[in-house]
Amino acid sequence: MSPPSVLEQVREIPLESILAYHGLSPRSEGSTIRYKNGQFNIVASGGGLWFDNAASIGGRGAIDLLLHIKYGVSPRGASDQQFRDAVRWLATFQPAAGVASLNTPSASSPRPPRESFASQAARLAIRDDARWPLARNYLLQTRRLPSDLVDHLHQAGDIYTTFGQERPEHTGVCFVHRNLDDDACGATVRNIGPASGSFSIGEKYGAWFGIGDPATARRAVLVEAPIDAISYAALRRPEETIILSVSGSHATRPLLDAAHARRWELAIGFDNDRPGNAGWEHCRENYALLYPDDPQPSRTLPAAKDWNDDLRAAPRRSHGRRL
Q: How do the domains of the chain map onto residue ranges?
């Protein structure tokens, strides 16, 4: 067997060592490891895949990553000279020396223990059923979600009302993330009232807010947010489909693996904007790299920016959909 080429060798360099060399330290978020500073917000996943949420750029392997963080170019837009420069830099890269000189943790350093979902929820998403009428009114009147879907999800324990210890006066709607075994592992919390915005706790890498049964689904639609999942279900959900909110515009490796293993027809319904389109391209490329012989994902677009915008523009009589 011939020795590996320089390209083959540099492509095997761990992403963690390159990120650490450039001063990006790992931070656990559920089962996701994030590398974040004022410029980058990178999530590294299995198989050498990575995605920078700050720039809506992703790629696979050490060369793509170095082109992005050192040379400031998209892997798809790099010139031949930039590619050669990146390979030359990696060929002389010494991970141990580089990491030690910057006093940053190496890939082998133990990661800090991550806080459990239950512990996070006890601080940040305390259930308060007395506030449910307020949250229900927000979902039905402000977001125009259909009452049958909202009430069904509330009764199933997939949506409930919360507050946090630090700001108990602020009400949030908690959308539970479940893994493919139906275990509650995380949540997206949408603040309502004066404190708008949303955040995730616990698992969002291998668990998601969903509508539908993964065991019987033949098709999966990925959207960015739980409200978009409910909106999509109200507008156009076909039979034998599961709709999954990924809490962002990035399809994680467990989702791509599940689509392959369960033979789902995969449709990407991310927002109709730059981050959504970049997330779609990233997902399409990653799936083609991982499973080139499978039918490839398709793109499904809302007419407006997102599916809730479409729902609010639609006549109310079109909203009713059964689960």
A: 6-101, 117-318
Where do we find the tokens 């067997």? 1
Buried b (16+ CB within 10 A) or exposed e, 76-102: eebeeebbebbbebbeebebeebbeee
CA angle at 268 for the pair 251 and 45, rounded to the nearest 5°: 10
* Half-sphere exposure for 74 (CA within 13 Å, toward CB): 10
Pick the more confident residue, 176 or 30. Answer: 176
Tokens of 100: 């030690």
CA distance 320 to 122: 35
> Beta strand pairing status for 298-299 and 265-268?
parallel
Per-residue pLDDT at 145 exceeds 70:
yes
Q: What is the CA radius of gyration of the chain?
A: 21
Contact criterion met (CB below 8 Å) for 229 and 223: yes
Helix (H, G, I), strand (E, B) or coil at 50: strand
pLDDT tens sequence across 58-88:
888 888 898 998 888 888 778 888 888 888 8
Q: Residue 255's closest CA among 19, 13, 32?
A: 32
Q: pTM above 0.85?
A: no
Beta bridge partners of 298: 267
Residue 239 backbone phi and psi in degrees, to 5:
-70, 160
What is the C-alpha separation between 44 and 16, in angstroms, rounded? 8
Contact of 89 with 70, CB cutoff 8 Å: yes
| Nearest in space to 260 (alpha carbons), one of 220, 298, 233 | 220
φ/ψ of 220, rounded to 5, equals: -125, 135
**Tokens at residue 190, please?**
């949408």
Q: How far is it, in rounded angstroms, from Cα 158 to Cα 154?
A: 6
Q: How far apart are CA 291 and CA 294, in angstroms?
A: 6
> What residues are paired with 221 via a beta bridge?
243, 267
The single-letter code of the amino acid at 15 is L
Confidence of residue 170 (pLDDT cuts 50, 70, 90): confident
* 3-class SS of residue 263: coil
